[in-house]
Amino acid sequence: MQSITINGSQRESVGKSATKALRNAGKVPCVLYGGDKPIHFSATEKAFKSLVYTPNVYTASIELDGKTYAAVLQDIQFHPVTDEILHIDFYQLFEDKPVTMEIPVKLVGKSKGVMIGGALRHNMRKLKVKALPANLPDFIEADITELEIGNKLYITKLANENYTFLHPDNTVVAQVRMSRNAAKAAAEAEGKKK
User: Fold this and answer.
1) Distance between CA atoms of 107 and 113, rounded to whole angstroms?
2) Are residues 81 and 39 part of one domain?
3) Range of the domain at 127
4) Does 89 share its domain with 104?
5) Which part of the chain is the Large ribosomal subunit protein bL25 L25 domain (predicted)?
6) Do residues 129 and 75 both lie within one domain?
């Protein structure tokens, strides 16, 4: 999985006034959980743009005072009016501990059902997976080539030994449904037969 580097500085004082002063200086207060004790730090808001405002999923490489921590974004708080980032929580990654993340689904192939007029529905755009950090994929590839009108692509078809899905086996990732045009064409063809 791709990683984005965030250069930050540890915060000594935590509290309302210290946090407000940080935000006024254009910095975002953050906390890194998962280690021996939580690490409070801050970084400029620009450092998070490529991590937050993207459909892709990345791990974060947080550099604080010469030390580097591998982490994933766990929670983020936005200002209700300005959409400014108020606070971010990270969770530290360890090579031997599995982590849960939502990974984007990428549809590949041309569906047979869509080619004859069906409508493709992309039901699950992200899937929750559990894996060791080294096995986390950038995206999950779902082949829709064999889908005909009325067919569904279930999560069981996407199974992989590197990670496990945290969804029920009957979760539909994509499906091809009858479109109005296809239904009209089928009705006209049926009318010609009689």
Assistant:
1) 14
2) yes
3) 100-187
4) no
5) 6-90
6) no
